[in-house]
Amino acid sequence: MNLHILRNQHLYVAVFVVQAKFELDQLTVHAEKKQLVAPGELLAEGPYFAGENTYRDGSKIYSARVGLADVIGNKLIVVPIKGAYIPRIDDIVIGRVTDIGMSGWQVDICAPYPAMLPQSETPMQHGREMGRRDLGHLFGVGDLVLAQVIAFDRTRDPLLTTKGRGLGKVTSGRVARISPAKIPRIIGKQGSMITMLKNETLTDIVPGQNGIVLAIGKNPDQERIAVEALYMIEREAHTSGLTDRVRAMILEKMKGK
Amino acid sequence: MGGQKKTAQLIDSNGLRVDGRRIDELRPIKLEVGVLDKADGSAYIEHGKNKILAAVYGPREAHPKHIALADRAVVRCRYHMAPFSTDERKSPAPSRRELELSKVIRESLEPSIMSEYFPRATIDIFIEVLQADAGTRCAGITSAALALADAGIPMKELVAGCAAGKIEGKVVLDLSDIEDKQGEADLPVALMARSNVVSLLQMDGSLTPDEFNQAFEMATDACRKIYEMQREALKTKYHIVRDVEEKNEIVEAKA
User: How far apart are CA B226 and CA B145, in angstroms?
Assistant: First the structure.
C-alpha cells in the first residue's frame, strides 16, 4: 500500500515538472506566508509540490494540520503548532529505560513508538556472554539516557545509539518536559536562546528533540532556575522579545543565590 | 417517536418553533478549542442545550498490541453520556445506544484522519456528553473533529455534523429535545465540507423522498455553516500565535 502511494507521488512529480514549464503564470498561492491555517484549508493551486503536512487533491494543495503555512521555492509546507514527536534519524533524544531484554533496552522516548537500544550500540565490552543482569549494570529500568536515533521508518520501531560524545546515562541534572514543537524556540535563531540560557543560569542545557530538555548545573538552584526558564519559554513561545524577558527573569532569580 | 401523544404545539401560527426558531434555523453554537490540559487535544461544544467535551489522545503506542494495524493507526472512539446529562439518571455503564454511536462517530471521522501516517499506533477519541438535548452525535462529531485538529493529528479536513427532521408534517433543521421526542423523523448528517463527502447519514422515523431531499439539503447547508464556525474556533485559539509571529519578523527585520 505504501508503495502505491509512493508511486503515485512520483507520477505527480513527473506530471507537475512538465506542467510547471507551461503554467508558470497560472499558479496561485492562496495562503500568505506564515498564515495560520486549519486542516482542509486551500493553500495553492497549480504546479506546486505538496510538502510536509499538506496534501494534494487534483490541482489544489490543502493543509493537513493546524499550523503556519509557508512556501519554499515551489513547495508548500505547514509548520505545525502542536503534535506528537515523530523520530527522525540523527535526532538527539532523552528517554527512559522501560525494560531490559536479552540483548538491549527498551526506551520510552515520548513518541508513538517505543525505541530499542541494542547492546551493540553501547560502549559495553564485547567478547563474553552478556546476560540480563549485566545489561542492568549499564542502564537500569527507570534510568534516563541521552541517545541518538540511528534508524526509523515507521514500519519498525526507532533504533537508538549511545555511542558518541556526551551520549549515555543521565547521571545528574533536572529535566523539563516540553512540547516537541517548541524545541526550536528553546534553541532560538542560531542558538541565541539556548546560549543565553547557558550563560545566565551557568548550566549546561541539552535539548532532546523529543521535548525532554536536560539542565545540568553546579548546584540545584541553578538547575531549578533553568527549568523554570524552559517552561517560561514554552508558555510564551509565541511572544516577541522573549529572550530579553527570560534573561531578566533569570537575573532576578539568580540574585539571591 | 410518532406514536406518542402530542402534549404541545411544536410550530405556532407564525411558523415559529417552541424555542422561537424558524424552521431552517440552527440553535446557538459555541465552540472552544484546547480546554483540557492533560489530553493531547480537546474541544468543548455548546449546541443549543447540549454540552459536550471531546478529548483526543495520540498518536500513541497501541495497547493491547494485537489491535495494532501494520499500515495505519487504529482510531478508537468512546461516546459516553454522563449520568447527570439527562432528566432521569442515566446508568454510567455503556449502553447499546452509546456503543452504536461510538461506532458511527468513529466511522464519520475516519475518512478525514490521515491514519496511514502513524502505522501501528492508536488515536483515541473520547466524547463526554455533560448535558444532552438531542443531536448529541452530531455535536459530538463537530467537537471531536476540533479536538483532533487541536491534537495536531494530520487530517484532510474538519468534519461537521448537524441533524434535520420532521415535526408536525414540516421539515425542520436541528431538532431540539422535545421536537426529537414528539417529531416524526430525525436525520443526522455529518459532512466533510471541502470535499463535499457525507460521512454520516442515519434516519429515524419516516420521510418521503421529497422530504428526505429537503431535509438532507437543510442539514448539509447547516454543516457548512458549522464548518465555518469550527475554523473560526481554531483560529481564535491560535490567532495570538500568528499575530506575534508577524511581530517577531518585524522585530528581526529592524534588528
Answer: 12
ipTM of model: 0.88
Q: Are B97 and B204 in contact (CB under 8 A)?
A: no
Nearest residue of chain A to residue B113 (CA atoms): A64
> What digits encode the pLDDT tens for the residues A49-71?
999 999 999 999 999 999 889 88
Say which CATH architecture domain B29-254 belongs to.
Answer: 2-Layer Sandwich (3.30)
Same domain, A42 and A113: no
**A24 falls within a domain:** yes
Q: Is the pTM of this model over 0.95?
A: no
Contact B114 A35 (CB under 8 A): no
- Residue A242 in any domain: the answer is yes
How far B221 CA sits from the closest chain A CA (Å)?
Answer: 18
Does the beta-carbon distance from A238 to B240 stay under 8 Å?
yes
pLDDT by residue, tens only, chain B of 255 residues: 445 555 668 999 898 999 999 999 999 999 999 999 999 999 999 999 999 999 999 899 998 999 999 999 999 999 999 999 999 999 999 999 999 999 999 999 999 999 999 999 999 999 999 999 999 999 999 999 999 999 999 999 999 999 999 999 999 999 999 999 999 999 999 999 999 999 999 999 999 999 999 999 999 999 999 999 999 999 988 876 555 555 555 444 444
Q: Domain of A35: which CATH number?
A: 2.40.50.100
Domain that holds residue A57: 2-80
Q: Rounded to a whole number, what is the largest CA-CA distance in chain B?
A: 75
Residues of chain A with C-beta less than 8 angstroms from the C-beta of B195? 57
User: Residue B137's closest CA among B165, B104, B167?
Assistant: B104
Nearest alpha carbon to residue B52 among B75, B29, B27, B71: B29
Q: CB–CB of A39 and B156 under 8 A?
A: yes
Residue with cell 539556548: A194
